[in-house]
Predict the structure.
Amino acid sequence: MKQATTILSGAALARVLLAPASVALIGASDDADKTSGRPLKFLRAAGFKGRVYPVNPRRETVQGERAWATLSALPEVPEHVFVLTGTDTVEAVLRECAALGVKAATVLAAGFGETGAAGAAREAALGDLARASGMRLVGPSSLGIVNPGAGFLLTANAAFAERDLPPGKVFVASHSGSMIGALVSRGKQRGVGFAGLVSVGGEADLSLGEICAATLDDPAIEGYLLFLESLRHGGRLRAFAIEAAKRGKPVIAFKLGRSEAAADMTATHTGALAGEDDVADAFLKDCGIARVGVLDALLESFPLARRVDLRCGVARPRVGVVTTTGGGAAMAVDQLGMRGVDVAPASTQTLATLTAAGIDVVPGRVLDLTLAGTRYEVMKKVLETMLAAPEFDLVLAVVGSSARFSPQLAVKPIIECADHARPLAAFLVPDAPDALAALTAAGVPCFRSPESCADSIAAMYGRRVPLAMPPVAEIAEAAAVSEAEAYAVLDALDVPRAPFVLASLDGKVPALPFDYPVAVKVCSAQISHKTEVGGVVLGVGGPEELRAALAQLRANLAARAPGVAADQALIQPMRAGLAEALIGYRVDPQAGPIIMLAAGGIWAEVARDRSIRLGPVDVQGAREMVGEVRAFAALTGLRGKPRGDLEALARAVSALSQLALKPALGVREAEVNPLMIMAEGQGVLAVDALVLQSPKGKMKETT
């Protein structure tokens, strides 16, 4: 096997993938309408200038061109090979490619990781082959790669039979090959084109994030659209997103999986509460990626992403709405409200400015111009006034029937105001393709439905500035430790906890350095959930009651957990706070370290009232998390109730999240539940903790 001197990456990888000097089509069909015949047909129709070699041992010609019997028979080693043959032949073909020194290959065939253990083994073998040889691999199950600017339509996707596709400045990467075709056809209808498209398939070697990262310095690409089925290779995706943000190139994603799908619970509650899609949502937002949930919004959001600065620091934007149709505006307002976006009323000063200009509007959440808004000069003046008003972060113009029949009345002023420093967007209520095309050509964010409009606005402001990636250690083995050992981890992180004393379960009552009443709990690494085995006795009021509690624990263990190693009890003073919180940390296999804050008690289990971030978070980020948990609003002095120490809670959240920066501790999961929230100024206190830790990271117990 010919070993490559370097592993291609960056601009060199992008060139070989998207604009190679030569390409071979292994298994090219003479029938241009067949899947294996389309790539040659599309390359020729697009005017690709590179050298193309159809390889088919059963034919002397393919689609009127000379065919070659084998890859080794070609007059040169092609830079890129598209493998169009069946699943059983792929590995042998790739071995030949690697032996010849081919730089990149794309594999069309399915039947790999998606088919079960045998297919996963075949896919792993392809990845091993690519890494051993240095040849870069796209797929398997890839429908191909498209670079319209170079005429490089190396794809079997039937959608590229479409003629006169518009040019564009956005690069598309998708786990689903068929979605590439859907975006192409829908984009053409809207006048939206693309700078490049890639179907990444199984990611046996090249991941979606690595492919996108290779194109970051291409000046023809100004942003990215991603269609994600999972967060495979999350580290690569995060690294790409961080670099995209540095370059001011927005990334917008549609990810499948919003339906309920709990993550592996392991030993803690954190896995169940931080469901798989919740983790994905936090991951994308913390990577600075705008996640949309409406397919149309994936196509329509890029102009808005360019206008809304990722670093604007506005989590809940104040949207000013002006409309010529009350019903249309009401639909937009409803959808915005469902996504937590505030529709702000015009200020007294703004209304006065409009009155002085001879425009009378009724004060309210929406400026409804009714029929007057269909006059050019009225809409123009209102837009100029709202865009200059400090109470709005974004202005949304909702236009009724005039958008279809008389766009010069209400749509033209929108186009003329598009260059204002404050973002301006438009939702056209009727089907108005000409007006949409004009707005799109002018770079105005414009939407065909209230759902995509609101979805896009919420997604743009939901992004967070991505932080540097922490080093993520591989923690292959981790097991639950005792509560006392878990407290040693909290001590290393400066997370406040209640004092405790360890006692033998043989009945001997120790002297306590704190007052009664106390809680008495079984302390064993083999018993994570103590209540399930009767391992907790609360409200113990004195030495004799403590002796009886220890005896009760022994009896409960003998009955409910016979044979389990448990010979110690942990004794703590009873503590009461204003409320309880749950703080959880875990290393997610795709997203990496995550930190979760939830309301304690029944709220955690029933209402799923929680906030999730990638770890670590600083104290300011933790404050934002506290503000996102609805139950904690009661601790802000609401209606005269006592104020809780939410600042101490934020510090505790940040402190536990620092596990992401302490791989030497070997902690894969940690949970403080409950964390008692005391009155303002009195702090917080952990009264139970559960930690899954590598044996190499274990620390000595402290008291």
Summary: DSSP finds 23 helices and 31 strands in the chain. The mean pLDDT is 92. The two ends are 60 Å apart (CA to CA). The first helix runs from residue 10 to 18.
